[in-house]
Amino acid sequence: MASNNLIKWDLDLIKRYDLSGPRYTSYPTALQFDPDQSAQDLVATGMKTTDSNAPLSLYFHIPFCAHVCYYCACNKVITRNRKKAQPYLDTVYKEMAQVSEWYSNDRIVNQLHWGGGTPTFISDDQMSELMSHTRKHFNLRDDDKGDYSIEIDPREANPDTIKVLRDIGFNRISLGVQDVHEEVQKAVNRVQPTEQTQSVLDTARSHGFKSINMDLIYGLPHQTEDSFKETLDTVIDMDPDRLSIFNYAHMPDRFRSQKHIDAATLPSPETKLAILENTINRLLDAGYAYIGMDHFAKPDDELALAQQNGQLHRNFQGYTTHADCDLVAMGVSSISQIGRVYYQNEHDIAGYSKAVEANNFAVKRGVVMNDDDIVRSEVIKQLICHFSLDTTMIEKRFAINFADYFAAEQTELASFAQDGLIQVNNGVITVTPAGRLLIRRICMAFDAYIPKQQKTNGFSRII
């Protein structure tokens, strides 16, 4: 694989190609999920097309947050009433009992993730209970060799909670930081002193967590090039194993909480680009490898090693090392990938709870991948994970002639090559250092569902 630290900042290319497009955590993307698809048919096809002996990845969505962060676009429930958690968990247990009958088959669970919301909103006892129910229905590892991770708000995690998480099997954590400056934090309603974050970090390390990720967001109110450099310096000193640097997309018409953000205080598009360029350079200088899009990792981290070995994968949690796992997701709005099927649960708690009570499951919409989807999904995965595509490998795997199969895409690929986004040599498409930041745009050329005039409403901007 090509070196993953070669990034060339070409502002002209970025401005020309920076439109809206999918993040390709799935292909087909969620826009193709059909609410008219029969839930029973989706499940039946999933059971029929899954490898019942392959390992599993489990995801649980805990939607509750005690406080609203104004920038947030996640599916969440803002409440300070902790009593709301138990009825929701009881519903999750009913759903879990059903889906384990469909998919468990004693398959080893190599990956597990709790996302939100704020998973640590629930009590220590409830977290232990949730993991106990999971172990009852699925074959969790007990050798600490799984990739068991949880998203943590440092404001909602005391030392006792960190110990409980380690004791019940978690070995990776992801900390939401976003920005270290109080002015920015106040503007987005997330005041979080650096000392608080450092305390959680130190406690996690003392309990032997294997990997720590931190999330940052650029494009928030009052951020400048200099202020975000200070945030980066502070975070680099904390020495996380991975970093996710997300672009804030201001869409107050879609996400009500964003109406609290004064658009006049947001950095200009030019400043955002400068912040991103500085961020990439700073992290590369600090020794992090550029994994792709908004992800960075230390060179000895499993993500970086998987990319080097050609084994990196991408799913709804982002980049991952578990390409061989079906993803079984539980809880409100969660998305599963089973065999040839993607499906999503009901989006609000009332609908989710009602569906589980009636059916023991809550599938709302989904899509069954056809043969063309399978081919294009693999092409997009190779490009977005490895910045390279061996067309000969695709030809052998799917018994096609690449140039003939993708005849309609050749003009666009030639344009990419002419503009310096890709190089094509001996059947290998290689994304150039200048093209890596625009990998989503390159992948869009192989997306059969996006009109070629590139009307991409509903997606965030690439950069």
Give the key terms.
alpha/beta, Arc Repressor Mutant, subunit A, 2 domains, ten-stranded mixed beta sheet, three-stranded antiparallel beta sheet, 16 helices, 20% strand, globular, iron-sulfur
What is the structure about, briefly put?
The protein is an alpha/beta fold and 463 residues long. It has helices spanning 11-17, 39-49, 85-103, 124-137, 159-167, 182-187, 194-206, 225-238, 269-285, 302-308, 349-359, 371-386, 391-398, 402-405, 410-419, 439-444; strands at residues 56-62, 64-65, 77-78, 108-116, 139-140, 147-152, 172-178, 211-218, 242-247, 289-292, 295-297, 313-315, 318-320, 326-330, 335-338, 341-345, 363-368, 388-390, 422-425, 428-431. It has 16 helices and 20 strands.
The CATH homologous superfamily of the largest domain is termed: tm_1862 like domain
Tell me the strand percentage band: 15-25%
Unreliable runs, pLDDT <50, ≥5 residues? none
CATH architecture of the largest domain: Alpha-Beta Horseshoe
From the N-terminal CA to the C-terminal CA, the straight-line distance is 25 Å
The helix fraction, in percent, is: 25-40%
- By CATH, the topology of the largest domain is pyruvate-formate lyase- activating enzyme
Q: What structural class do the secondary elements suggest? A: alpha/beta
* Average residue pLDDT: 93
Which value, in Å, is the CA radius of gyration? 22 Å
Catalytic activity: coproporphyrinogen III + 2 S-adenosyl-L-methionine = protoporphyrinogen IX + 2 5'-deoxyadenosine + 2 L-methionine + 2 CO2
Main location: cytoplasm
Pathway: Porphyrin-containing compound metabolism; protoporphyrin-IX biosynthesis; protoporphyrinogen-IX from coproporphyrinogen-III (AdoMet route): step 1/1
Binding site for S-adenosyl-L-methionine 2: 71-73, 117-118, 178, 190, 215, 249
